[in-house]
Design goal:
mainly beta, OB fold (Dihydrolipoamide Acetyltransferase, E2P), 2 domains, five-stranded mixed barrel, 1 helix, elongated
Length: 202
């Protein structure tokens, strides 16, 4: 069960449509705070300011992210990093997700991400870690190539930890990739939450 939950979280960060989505379905990323939860749905106060109703599939996989430390990332760690353009063509990390070893290879590659215009999500293996004055420089390798990323000291770093359906409560921060139906309604079979005061930085 825990491995399936972690896989669901890894798929969320893959940047591609989830396998269970129908061809006609449109994936919609929702970031915000749970306002209310019922037996089969929840309402999220999204960062856009909207109140978003999301149907919860049965069963729904729930996974959590908790704070991690940059020192735990070494060569051969498998990570997901969201970056945005920096000076002199550099890539600045705005969030780092440390995957468990069992999920090595999940969502591997580099692709656009919608946290902010110009962002990329890069999943791959760390092949170098160099301490710099401005932070840590990580080289992340994936099948198609590699990217060198600067990680400033303030960049959120998280890892995946187990969670359950009962953890979906008002006030909890969430990240959801939902399926939008033709009538505009949203549903999901996977919810990522923050634990220990962490906001999922995705």
């Amino acid at each position: 069960m825990v491995r399936r939950q972690i896989l669901a979280a890894a798929l969320m960060l893959g940047g591609t449509a989830l396998p269970a989505l129908a061809q006609s379905a449109t994936p919609t990323r929702v970031r915000g705070t749970i306002e209310a939860v019922s037996a089969d749905s929840m309402t999220v106060h999204a960062r856009s300011g909207d109140e978003v109703a999301i149907k919860l599939n049965n069963p729904v996989a729930v996974q959590a992210v908790a704070k991690a430390d940059l020192a735990t990332i070494g060569e051969h760690s498998y990570v997901g990093v969201t970056t945005r353009p920096g000076p002199n063509d550099s890539l600045i990390a705005v969030e780092v997700h440390v995957f468990p070893e069992a999920m090595r290879g999940a969502g591997e590659g580099s692709r656009p991400w919608d946290l902010a215009p110009g962002d990329l999500m890069t999943n791959g293996t760390v092949t170098g870690a160099v301490t710099k004055t401005a932070g840590r420089e990580l080289t992340v390798q994936y099948k198609e190539g590699s990217k060198t990323l600067v990680v400033p000291p303030q960049t959120p770093i998280v890892t995946f930890v187990p969670a359950q359906r009962a953890d979906l409560k008002p006030g909890v921060k969430v990240f959801v990739i939902a399926t939008e139906a033709t009538d505009g309604s949203l549903s999901t079979g996977r919810v990522l939450i923050g634990k220990g005061g962490v906001t999922p930085p995705m």
